[in-house]
Amino acid sequence: MDTTSQIICVAIIYMLMRRAQARHLPRNRYNTSILSRNAYILELLRGSDRQCIELMRMSREAYVRLCRHFRLKLWLHDSRHVSVEEKIAMFLTIIGHNERYVIIKRRFQHSSQTIHKYFHEVLATIMTFAREMIVPSTFEPNPDSPGAHKSL
User: Fold this and answer.
1) Do 87 and 118 touch, CB atoms closer than 8 A?
2) 41/24 Cα distance (integer angstroms)
């Protein structure tokens, strides 16, 4: 190999390395809130009951009972990074204020994909809870009542 070929090879290798480095830019952290993920939930639970009602449309006691009920029934579990309390708080904030995932993403410091995943997980759990709690009443009309229709 002569000198010009070596220079060309070195230049090509240098360009390939620069291109590879350009692809691997460091990720910037966009969620820069002082309160990290679970710390926000702890602040809600230690704060006033009014704050809980305003943010989640539920009293602190009702919220804690709901979380406990879902844990006892094994409908929801803590994941590696998100607790049951945080999952339910995200869900309640979304439906209580008609918030978009972008707003919840900033408040709870999770990705939109994570918010979406846990929103639908809690939604399915709420549907199960509704089937347990909302029982249709039996309708047995009294034929002796004056307002009863004869064909019923």
Assistant:
1) yes
2) 34
DSSP state of 136: P
Q: In a 3-state reduction of DSSP, which class is residue 73?
A: coil
pTM of the model: 0.68
The CA-based angle 105-119-74, given to 5 degrees, is: 130
Half-sphere exposure at residue 88, Cβ-oriented, CA atoms within 13 angstroms: 26
Whole-number Cα distances in Å, 8 to 13, 21, 124: 9, 20, 61
Residues 6+ apart with CB under 8 A from 79: 118
- Residue 109: what residue type? Q
Q: pLDDT tens for residues 81-121?
A: 899 999 999 999 999 999 898 888 888 888 899 999 999 99
Four-CA torsion 111, 116, 118, 122, nearest 10 degrees? 150
Structure tokens at 19: 């291109």
